[in-house]
């Protein structure tokens, strides 16, 4: 009998959990629709790029939607079981709240491992891959925009002129390049042929020149140099792409080992490591929130509330909103140095665990939960006001 009940509860949670996960993730992807449309119009991207774009951006949503969907699944399932008096029937067989928690903890552990895999590996991978895709699209657009007998100035400090361009092979003939170097140096290149070679870095385009001459003039001493070459590889940087090519990657693109290394480097320089410490521990604290939501969701869900399914969803959003506000406030204090960075990240979990233990203990002793009742009453009043306004 306990095994049958555990399987039943597990299924009851899984269905709204997966449904919420799909809806929330799809909603998050809609926010990227404008970016996709812009890329389709300005860069002419195809289905392959769109697929890779979606795969790269999904992890940044799932690290948040997985814990939230789990809480929604627990609340929706248990408010339904409570409203149909199935929780009362389970208790009459001798099952306590601790026994009912077993399938919830099992699903929480699965959600925890999945979220942890995303925060530690897939989240930074997706951000790195997304940056590469966007730069690749911009680079393709720039290279394809080169026209014959036209001066092209989309590369940083470089003006390119091509006399003849073979569209099929990409080979160029009659090339002239004016390049402004660092300081007061300026270079001019004349080459019979040239072709863009496969890039080895994300922030640059490489142009390989054949059979040409390089002219260099320095203003400091007025020297003028001329050099012939059989082949020469010129590195071209795309205007507006300096952020993509910066040596220091943003935190969201760093794996755990890279974050730890950056913390050590920053500490050695005597600078504040708070932003990196916060991001490091956030990768661990965010997945752990599913256990906090399990502790809160079950006792809140078994309260006697009408319109159980909709109320469970609303209570879940209220809990997530409060958790987000507390987390954001504590992280801000941690970044400003007013609170220890580790405590700033884990503080929200600690606070909500304490609240969850109290609520869970009260529910296990069949005591009324004032917080849950107040939330339910507030939601009912809000729904009544909306109905009156509509009428």
Could you walk me through the main structural features you see in this protein, from its secondary elements to its overall organization?
- The chain is built from ten helices and six strands, in the order H-H-H-H-H-E-E-E-E-E-E-H-H-H-H-H.
- By secondary structure, it is of the alpha+beta class.
- The protein has two domains: 2-139 and 250-390, no CATH class; 155-237, no CATH class.
- A six-stranded antiparallel beta sheet has the order 1-2-3-4-5-6, with no helix packed on it.
- The relative contact order is 0.11.
- Mean pLDDT is 81; it is low at 240-247 and 306-310.
How do the strands and helices of this protein lay out in sequence?
Layout: H1 2-30, H2 33-43, H3 47-83, H4 86-92, H5 97-144, E1 151-152, E2 158-165, E3 172-180, E4 186-197, E5 204-217, E6 224-237, H6 256-268, H7 274-301, H8 308-335, H9 341-364, H10 370-390
Antiparallel strand pairs: 1-2, 2-3, 3-4, 4-5, 5-6
Helix pairs in contact: 1-3, 1-5, 3-5, 3-7, 3-8, 5-7, 6-7, 7-8, 7-9, 8-9, 8-10
Brief descriptors of the model:
alpha+beta; six-stranded antiparallel beta sheet; 391 residues; single chain; 63% helix; 10 helices; 2 domains; elongated
Mean pLDDT, as a whole number? 81
Uncertain segments are: 240-247, 306-310
The structure class reads alpha+beta
Q: Rounded to an integer, what's the Rg over CA atoms?
A: 30 Å
Quaternary state of this entry equals single chain
How many beta-strand segments? 6
Describe the global form. Answer: elongated
Helix content: 55-70%
Task: Report strand order across the widest sheet.
Answer: 1-2-3-4-5-6
What is the number of helical segments per DSSP (H or I, 4+ residues)?
A: 10
Strand content: 15-25%
- How is the biggest beta sheet arranged? 6 strands, antiparallel
Number of domains: 2
How far apart are the termini?
A: 49 Å
Succession of helices and strands? HHHHHEEEEEEHHHHH
């Amino acid at each position: 009998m306990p095994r049958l009940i555990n399987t039943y509860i597990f299924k009851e949670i899984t269905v709204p959990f997966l449904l919420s996960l799909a809806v929330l993730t799809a909603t998050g992807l809609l926010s990227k629709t404008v970016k996709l449309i812009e890329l389709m119009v300005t860069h002419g991207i195809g289905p392959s790029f769109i697929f890779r774009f979606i795969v790269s951006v999904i992890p940044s949503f799932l690290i948040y939607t997985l814990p939230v969907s789990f809480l929604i699944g627990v609340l929706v399932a248990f408010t339904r079981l409570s409203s149909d008096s199935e929780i009362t029937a389970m208790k009459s067989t001798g099952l306590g709240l601790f026994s009912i928690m077993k399938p919830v903890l099992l699903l929480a552990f699965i959600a925890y491992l999945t979220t942890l895999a995303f925060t530690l590996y897939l989240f930074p991978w997706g951000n790195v891959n997304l940056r590469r895709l966007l730069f690749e699209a911009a680079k393709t657009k720039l290279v394809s925009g080169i026209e014959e007998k036209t001066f092209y100035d989309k590369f940083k400090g470089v003006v390119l002129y091509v006399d003849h361009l073979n569209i099929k092979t990409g080979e160029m003939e009659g090339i002239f390049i004016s390049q402004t170097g660092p300081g007061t140096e300026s270079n001019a290149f004349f080459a019979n042929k040239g072709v863009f070679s496969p890039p080895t870095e994300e922030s640059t385009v490489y142009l390989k020149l054949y059979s040409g001459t390089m002219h260099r003039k320095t203003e400091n001493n007025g020297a003028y140099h001329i050099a012939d070459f059989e082949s020469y590889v010129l590195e071209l940087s795309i205007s507006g792409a300096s952020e993509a090519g910066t040596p220091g990657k943003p935190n969201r693109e760093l794996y755990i080992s890279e974050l730890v290394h950056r913390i050590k480097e920053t500490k050695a320089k005597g600078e504040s490591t708070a932003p990196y410490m916060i991001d490091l521990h956030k990768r661990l604290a965010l997945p752990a929130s599913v256990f906090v939501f399990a502790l809160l969701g079950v006792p809140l869900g078994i309260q006697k509330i009408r319109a159980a399914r909709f109320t469970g969803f609303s209570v879940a959003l209220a809990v997530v909103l409060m958790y987000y506000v507390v987390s954001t406030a504590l992280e801000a204090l941690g970044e400003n140095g007013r609170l220890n960075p580790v405590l700033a990240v884990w503080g929200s979990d600690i606070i909500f665990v304490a609240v969850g233990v109290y609520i869970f203990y009260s529910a296990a002793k069949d005591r009324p939960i004032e917080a849950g009742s107040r939330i339910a009453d507030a939601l009912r009043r809000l729904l009544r006001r909306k109905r009156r306004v509509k009428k």
